[in-house]
Each structure stands twice: as structure tokens, then as C-alpha cells.
């Protein structure tokens, strides 16, 4: 498997995927998108990355989501994407949505993080070189920055669109107030602001609680959800302990063994039983739940092997839940609405 011509030049790869409009824009996201947050860095196996990216694309996943500091090391996930573009995906650039972000720390000194115009524009220039691209489809400000006026960050987003370095812009980890300000500021400047990327899962309902989910639905802004599997907790991976190849065992930066309390393990087991009655894996049900009401246009999945990607795509076609199932899921999590 060394030649990109293994891909069929027809529409078969799209038959198994559902595509959703991103807010009120003309852009569409696949219901399931592939994130490069984990397993695409310099410490990971390139042949496995390549197999995962191919499996995703052949299954209709047209969106690859990155950020400047994804790795480790910082920048290495973008370098991996650049290599994938060279080896496989260059002929398919117009079939792909490729995104990146800047906001969290990237390089030393006062200009390597935050929301300043200098940082955001400089970072995108570096990202394009690493990815071997002329433009990204979406450039995100990755996080709110209390030290920078939000208007400065938003103006930088508007300017990279005018410069032809991004087709659309988005924000990530923005609360309702800052999302509202982004909508107002960027619409006044005819800038195609289309999406807010937030963490959302059965275990993390923050976008319901802080108003972002409803606000975006009302204003025609898309939501793409990251960590829909709660860093792997909403899968069958930890039902029988901590496997040696799990994220906790290999890289405990974002999910620690201490998170798997007896209470949490009990919740995972209960949710797994609900999923089994639905004829789904726990991971599939967790993804279906995020997509259930049409207010989230895509879920970002991470993966460590191609088979996980193919398995999880099935969630896109099973987003129907009965009221009883939803209530049972809430009860299993200890949520009383």
C-alpha cells in the first residue's frame, strides 16, 4: 500500500457517511471527523498514522482537525499531515477540510501563546509551512485570552481570510459571551465565522449549562464536539482495568488513572449495558448521543488504529434515542434534569 491510486475516483467513499451543514453556512462537515490531537506526533508510528488517515478518508471522513501544538512534540502533528499530503492526499485536497488552531502555548517568549495578532498570524504562517499547504479551510482561535482584547484576536481571524490563508474561521473553548461577541464582530466585517469547537460528551455537559449550545443553534453557528468519548472513558477500553496500550498507560497528561473512580467505573458499566441493548458499542452510543438533536454538526474522534475509526463511523446513522433511553443515560451518570 504505497500508492495513493488505491483510492477509487468515485463517490463510493461517501456512501456510509452523513454530512451536516455547519450552522447556516454552505459548508458541510462529516458527522464524524478525525482529530490529530493524539497519535500523530513525532513519537508515533508514521505507517499507523497513514493507515488511519486512509481508513478515515475511504470511509467518508473528509475533515482532519489539527492545532499548532498537537504532538508531542509541538508542531509534529502538522508535520505528519504535511507528509501525508505529500505521500497520499495531495490529489484530494479539494475533497478535504483541513483545520488548525492557535492560542495555547507554542514557542518560548511573550509572543508564542495567547490571542495577539502577532501570535495568531505568525502561527498560521508556520502551520501552513509544516502542513505543506497554501491555505487551511478553517483557522481557529484555540482559547479565550484574558490579556488580549477579543476584538484583536477576531480581527486577526478576519485578516487571514482576506489574505487567502483560510477560507473560514472559528473559535474553540469560547464561552457564550465571547461567542456572542465573535458573531457580532465578524459578521459586521463580512468574515465567514462558522463554528465553535467545544468539549461535549455524556460526561461533560458544559455547553448545555453555559448556554453555548442553544446560542449557536439560534445564531446559525455550527458546533463541533471534541472529546466526545471523554478521553476514552466512554468506550469499552476500561471496563476491565487499564490496558497497557491505553491513553492512561501511554500518556497520562489528559486522562489520569485517578479519574477512573469506582463511581465512574460503575457509570461506564451501566452505560455499556444501555448501548448493548441498542445494538451499539459504548463508543458508538456516546457519539450518537452527541449528534442526537442536530445541534452538533460533527464529532471529533481520536484513534490509535484504523479499526476504531471504521467502527465509530456507524454512530452517524444511529442518532435516534427514545425518551426512556435518554432518561436512563442521565440516571446512569447521576444527572437529574
Task: Detail the topology: elements first, then pairings.
Blueprint: E1 19-21, E2 28-30, E3 32-35, H1 46-58, E4 63-65, H2 76-89, E5 97-102, H3 117-131, E6 136-141, H4 150-162, E7 166-172, H5 176-188, E8 193-199, H6 206-209, H7 212-219, E9 222-226, H8 247-250, H9 262-277, H10 282-290, E10 298-301, H11 306-313, H12 323-332
What does this structure look like?
- The chain is of the alpha/beta class.
- It is built from twelve helices and ten strands.
- The chain has helices spanning 46-58, 76-89, 117-131, 150-162, 176-188, 206-209, 212-219, 247-250, 262-277, 282-290, 306-313, 323-332; strands at 19-21, 28-30, 32-35, 63-65, 97-102, 136-141, 166-172, 193-199, 222-226, 298-301.
- The strands form two sheets. Strands 3-4-5-6-7-8-9-10 form an eight-stranded parallel barrel, surrounded by six helices. Strands 1-2 form a two-stranded antiparallel ribbon.
- Helix 4 (150-162) links the parallel strand 6 and strand 7.
- Helix 4 crosses helix 5, helix 5 (176-188) packs parallel to helix 7 and helix 9 (262-277) runs antiparallel to helix 12.
- The radius of gyration is 19 Å and the shape is globular.
- The protein starts with 18 loop residues before the first strand and ends in a 5-residue tail after the last helix.
- Residues 1-9 have low confidence and may be disordered.
Summed up, what is this model?
By secondary structure, this protein is α/β, with parallel strands linked by helices. Helix content is 38%, strand content 14%.
Task: For the structure shown, list the relevant keywords.
globular, single chain, 8-stranded parallel beta barrel, 12 helices, two-stranded antiparallel ribbon, 337 residues, alpha/beta, 14% strand
Amino acid at each position: 500500500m504505497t500508492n495513493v491510486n488505491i483510492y477509487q475516483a468515485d463517490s463510493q467513499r461517501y456512501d456510509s457517511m452523513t454530512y451536516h451543514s455547519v450552522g447556516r453556512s454552505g459548508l458541510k462537515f462529516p458527522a464524524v471527523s478525525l482529530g490529530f490531537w493524539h497519535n500523530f506526533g513525532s513519537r508515533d508510528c508514521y505507517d499507523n498514522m497513514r493507515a488511519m488517515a486512509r481508513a478515515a478518508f475511504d470511509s467518508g471522513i473528509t475533515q482532519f482537525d489539527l492545532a499548532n501544538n498537537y504532538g508531542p512534540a509541538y508542531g509534529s502533528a502538522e508535520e505528519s499531515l504535511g507528509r501525508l499530503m505529500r505521500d497520499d492526499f495531495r490529489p484530494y485536497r479539494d475533497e478535504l477540510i483541513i483545520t488548525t488552531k492557535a492560542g495555547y502555548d507554542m514557542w518560548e517568549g511573550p509572543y508564542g501563546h495567547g490571542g495577539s495578532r502577532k501570535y495568531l498570524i505568525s502561527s498560521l504562517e508556520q502551520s501552513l509551512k509544516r502542513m505543506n499547504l497554501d491555505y487551511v479551510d478553517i483557522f481557529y482561535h484555540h482559547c479565550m485570552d484574558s490579556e488580549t482584547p477579543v476584538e484583536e484576536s477576531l480581527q486577526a481571524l478576519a485578516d487571514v481570510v482576506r489574505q487567502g490563508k483560510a477560507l473560514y474561521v472559528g473559535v474553540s473553548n469560547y464561552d457564550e459571551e465571547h461567542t456572542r461577541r465573535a458573531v457580532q464582530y465578524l459578521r459586521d466585517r463580512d468574515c465567514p465565522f462558522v463554528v465553535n469547537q467545544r468539549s461535549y460528551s455524556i460526561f461533560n455537559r458544559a455547553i448545555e449549562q453555559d448556554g453555548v449550545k442553544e446560542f449557536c443553534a439560534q445564531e446559525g453557528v455550527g458546533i463541533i464536539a471534541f472529546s466526545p468519548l471523554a478521553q476514552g472513558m466512554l468506550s469499552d477500553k476500561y471496563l476491565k482495568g487499564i490496558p497497557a496500550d491505553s491513553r492512561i498507560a501511554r500518556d497520562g497528561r489528559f486522562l489520569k488513572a485517578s479519574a477512573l473512580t469506582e463511581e465512574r467505573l460503575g457509570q461506564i458499566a451501566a452505560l455499556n449495558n444501555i448501548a448493548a441493548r441498542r445494538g451499539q458499542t459504548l463508543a458508538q452510543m456516546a457519539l450518537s448521543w452527541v449528534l442526537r438533536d442536530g445541534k452538533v454538526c460533527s464529532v471529533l474522534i481520536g484513534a490509535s488504529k484504523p479499526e476504531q475509526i471504521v467502527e465509530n463511523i456507524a454512530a452517524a446513522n444511529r442518532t435516534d434515542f427514545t425518551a426512556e433511553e435518554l432518561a436512563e443515560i442521565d440516571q446512569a451518570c447521576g444527572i437529574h434534569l
